[in-house]
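Retro notes
What went well: the complex prediction finally ran end to end.
Inputs used:
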Amino acid sequence: MNQRTMHTLRAAAFAAATALVSYSAIAQNIRVAYIDPLSGAFAQTGEQGLAEFRFAADQINKRGGVLGGRKLEVLGFDSKVSPQEALNQLKRITDQGIRIITQGNGSNVAGALIEAVNRHNERNPGKEILFLNYAAVDPAFTNEKCSFWHFRFDANADMKMESLTTWMAGNKNIKKVYLINQDYSFGHAVKKAARAYLARKRPDIQIVGDDLHPLGKVTDFAPYVAKIKAAGADSVITGNWGQDMSLLVKAGKDAGLNVDWYTYYAGGLGTPTAMGEAAAGKVKIIAEYHSNVANNKAAKWDADYRKQAPKGNPDFYFLRGKIMWEMLAKAINQAKSAEPKAVAYALEGMRHAADLGEVEMRKSDHQLIQPLYVFTLQKSAARGGPKEAKIDMEGSGLAPVTDARLEAFTSAQPTSCQMKRP
Amino acid sequence: MLPVLFSAMEFVLVQTLNGISYGLLLFMLSSGLTLVFSLMGVLNFAHASFYMLGAYFAYQVSAKFGFWPALVVAPLLVGAVGMLVERWGLRTVHKYGHVAELLFTFGLAYLIEEAVHLIWGRLAVEYRVPAELDGPLFHIMGSQYPIYRGFMMLVSVTMLVSIWLALTRTRIGLVIQAALTHPQTVEALGHNVPRVFMLVFGGGAALAGLAGVIGGNAFVTEPGMAAAVGPIIFVIVVVGGMGSLAGAFVASLLIGCLQTFAVSLDWSLGGITVSQAAPVLPYLLMVLLLIFRPKGLMGTREG
């Protein structure tokens, strides 16, 4: 090999390398950082979200990605449900040049992230970060603490109560309601909203009891159940989750308490298994999705997800997560850019034909307005329950069956947000 | 007037039964702890972890062979684990004194919790009350009382009587008591004192395991269950008097009823209701007792 061929070869190699670099710049993945618990007591909840979001990104990539061929990529960052830890992760995320984050577990974490993102974006024009919130439900985030960089895809705590009480108001059998909640900010918010909305919609309903108990510290709920029974309640509203939810329902069943439980989180990971058949026909949930909804256009997605779901978390849970990813892809394509500022402008006010009806990312406060369902956990059809109870939750034998669909407008509340746009 | 009085009576009666049955479960939990403490002087921080192991073993055994075999086998398995811990862990640490023992059991509690995570996962497992014990036992003026709560009480009382008989009426019980105060003499008489300690520790663990078998399906079997009951059983041991089995019994019933009745009261004190403060009351009782009567209700030694 002489000097000349050597030279040509080198030039060719160089050209090839440059081409590769510029090609990879065009085809660079759009990275989204997922900040939620991936270790500790809530790890399984965090891992479920991560698995569902990876699946969603894969589906979009299979259809050709965004911006004519760029792929979406989800990277997990462990928040340990701690605001401090989440902020450390945010630092790592900005160091790696990731511009879109998503989080859901813990309103305290979300609150810290919103503040940090606002500050970061103010100080680093041109390097802004976009925050997509899929589950942190403190109403403040789309009211007094609203931010141009924050978008919420879950109905907030007050909106869920608005829809739930609208449905309860139509049920004339409800006469005496008991409130029992965990003694911390979310429990207080549920209690306050339940009282206010019931008084507005059905002043004849009596609130016959109102208890707060410490978060995750009660082993024996029998004394509370005796109180509920003595008060003569026919319905109980509770924001309880995890062990506080399952133990309450089990204690109720043991004492032969005959009430309907109106809940937010009885469908949470592990809770149907822990409650078992004690919950059948008694426990109602308000949420945007369950696997047995009528005319379910997400049914194939749901089934495909289950086929590859991680062991131990078999269910498809976050329809709002699917909506979030679809809207993000749409916004990137509309903006013809993955720049957070452009994407945010494309997202606000966006209407989207989602699987269960049209949804809207309200421009005034960046709150997604979507239809919700009230549903009851029933014995699954396989265990002798009603035939609509086809797919059970986490193999527990409890399957969700719809009581009512509440159209998007029922939960839409006025906002106090005064959005500052860049 | 009469119906009001009737329903008030019903409420008090139901709450009393609830308080007693919860108290008896607390006693099952704390009896092993107080036994090990009074006999060996070891304050076992991993005691609640044995309770959790009992529940998980029972879940595993009952899935294959049913609840009744599990009721016997699971506590024995936990007892065996306890003996292994004593033989290969505590006995070695013992010579470095009580602080080392305390730290050892403290670390052990974390180890057991992580092991449970690895084997059974982080979520609740489907460990259920058996069908024959599921349902109402009797009705009190319209309120039903579950069979399983009655069963809990029965097991707990049987346990109390058998421990007491074993300690006071059997040969091994006498040897155990003697080994406590005069280990050298007992050894000189030809008894194997380390083996006695191993049996006692295993026995204490088995009692916690039994509580786990009973409590695991009455409540919930999940990795947080040890941490949830850990603090309260220490309160019972302190309130009852360090090392007093009878004291632990009285304290368990007292705390069970105290919590149950406090929940029923909606009297407000500066914006906080008694019901809201109910879970703190046992700790308040402990602090007050430590100030005014440090040896506890029926304890024989100070602190």
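What we learned: The interface with chain B takes residues 41, 43-44, 183, 211-214, 216-220, 222-224, 226-227, 229-230, 243, 246-247, 250, 254-256, 269-271, 273-274, 276, 312, 396 of chain A (CB under 8 Å).
What to try next: split runs per interface for comparison.
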